[in-house]
Here is the input.
Amino acid sequence: GQNIDQPTEMTATEGAIVQINCTYQTSGFNGLFWYQQHAGEAPTFLSYNVLDGLEEKGRFSSFLSRSKGYSYLLLKELQMKDSASYLCAVRDGSDSWGKLQFGAGTQVVVTP
Amino acid sequence: DGGITQSPKYLFRKEGQNVTLSCEQNLNHDAMYWYRQDPGQGLRLIYYSQIVNDFQKGDIAEGYSVSREKKESFPLTVTSAQKNPTAFYLCAAENRDTPPYGYTFGSGTRLTVV
Here is the structure.
């Protein structure tokens, strides 16, 4: 089975930086995804890491350490529209494709 | 534009009724998934299909059924055997052609038992 942990909620001020941590314990590993989900809407893809290191994409960056079972999503220059839930998802290494296991999500609240 | 369409957006079910949630995609992806989302919990996998005419149970398949007669369609039936069906249901199709090989989700169906 899998265990994916991330904080329940984080609050930050507009223009600031927030780091959302995700730790996982899996029987195998074949990639880690971050999704953004606004209330009542579909999750949308943010980032993908399969090798150790940092992936940067505009204001969002994601880091992975496979040996530590650890990832973080870094949101810079926060905007009010970044208020959303951020989902960490791991692909089990027993399958080459498919079957993402999701954490419970981190609700980020951006204040003026 | 390619995407996934789920309907209806809101659905109300009386106890003892079966209801079917629609999921249609025009992305030409082989693999499709159904997840259930409850407050404070992660998405939980109900059923998935990797190819037409084939599907497998996920972690919480009891009380649900699916079919995959066409590549584009993967409907989910919530049966009367599902004791707590009130939830937000998300359908996804998986890109296996180009990196990063992730999911595209539909906009979801919110099911409420009345």
Observations:
- The longest strand of chain B covers residues 44-51.
- Chain B touches chain A through 27 residues (CB under 8 Å).
- The mean pLDDT of chain B is 92.
